[in-house]
Amino acid sequence: DDDDDIPQLSSHTLAALQEFYLEQQQREGMKTSQGLNQYSIGSIEEDWQLSQFWYSDETAACLAKEATAAAGKGGRIACVSAPSVYQKLKEQDGKDFSVCILEYDRRFSIYGEEFIFYDYNHPLNLPGNLLPHSFDIVVADPPYLSEECLQKTAETIKYLTKGKILLCTGAIMEEQAAKHLGVKICKFIPKHSRNLANEFRCYVNYASGLD
């Protein structure tokens, strides 16, 4: 028979594959039916290979509220590797602040001119129109729990901010965060939509509402 050499999926594997595709379609359909707009958390799915873990809705809302309060009326906010906070800020449709997102994942380029491609390995490789010390607050969440990643991201943060910094990273990075950015740990504990093994914390260098 000519078909003998053609690999055939077992009925069990085929059923599992069909179920996977059905779930995928349902998930996309649910996003549409729930009215998720392009700024909703989860509208762009996490890519674990890029060490992406989105905040829970409550945490993103809390950090967005803190950022707008710290920036003040007409303030400028930069979100460095913190897309969940950016999305929550945009969801608020605020007229009293402006915000941009610095992110390695080019899927976020759907946000147009507010998207700035960012690779922490080249911390000062930024567009010329991104002037030094032009943001009232920088919210940052370095993708990796390593001193090298934090140190390089810190260069970007210090270049962008007028002074205020809101950093989210692992509790194990407390000493390095103080060393590179002069930030102190807050009482507020950020949560992710999926539970992470590493304890996460927030750090600031100003009197915040997170204590």
UniProtKB/TrEMBL annotation:
Q: Which InterPro entries match?
A: DNA_methylase_N6_adenine_CS, Efm5/EEF1AKMT1, Mlase_EEF1AKMT1/ZCCHC4
Where's it found, cell-wise? Cytoplasm
- Any GO CC annotation of this UniProt entry: cytoplasm
GO terms, molecular function = nucleic acid binding; protein-lysine N-methyltransferase activity
Please classify the protein's predominant subcellular localization into one broad category: cytoplasm
Q: Which GO terms describe its biological process?
A: methylation
Q: Which UniProt keywords apply?
A: Cytoplasm, Methyltransferase, Transferase
Q: Which reaction does it catalyse?
A: L-lysyl-[protein] + 3 S-adenosyl-L-methionine = N(6),N(6),N(6)-trimethyl-L-lysyl-[protein] + 3 S-adenosyl-L-homocysteine + 3 H(+)
Q: Which Pfam families match?
A: N6-adenineMlase (PF10237)
Task: Name the HAMAP family for this protein.
Answer: Methyltr_EFM5
> Which protein, by its recorded name, is this?
N(6)-adenine-specific DNA methyltransferase 2
